[in-house]
UniProtKB/TrEMBL annotation:
One of its GO terms (molecular function) is iron ion binding. It comes from Caproiciproducens galactitolivorans. CDD domains: rubredoxin. Residues 2-51 form the Rubredoxin-like domain. PANTHER family: RUBREDOXIN, RUBREDOXIN-1-RELATED. It comes from the Bacteria. This is Rubredoxin. The keyword Acetylation does not apply. Its cofactor is Fe(3+). Coiled coil: none annotated. One of its GO terms (biological process) is alkane catabolic process. Keywords: Electron transport, Iron, Metal-binding, Transport. The keyword Transport applies. Pfam families: Rubredoxin.
Length: 51
């Protein structure tokens, strides 16, 4: 499962994580910190949709 920022199109893939933002590979989208934001545009996790 992947999650796409509906604002800019950034894709969060749990298998890859976001190491540049301190998110280890394998961390599910639901387990991201509540204050986590899109690495590209800064939108919150509520602006992501499942793909």
């Amino acid at each position: 499962m992947k999650y796409i920022c509906i604002s800019c199109g950034y894709v969060y893939a749990p298998d890859a994580g976001a190491p540049e933002n301190g998110i280890v590979p394998g961390l599910s989208f639901q387990d991201l910190p509540e204050n986590w934001t899109c690495l590209v545009c800064g939108m919150g996790i509520d602006m992501f949709s499942e793909e």
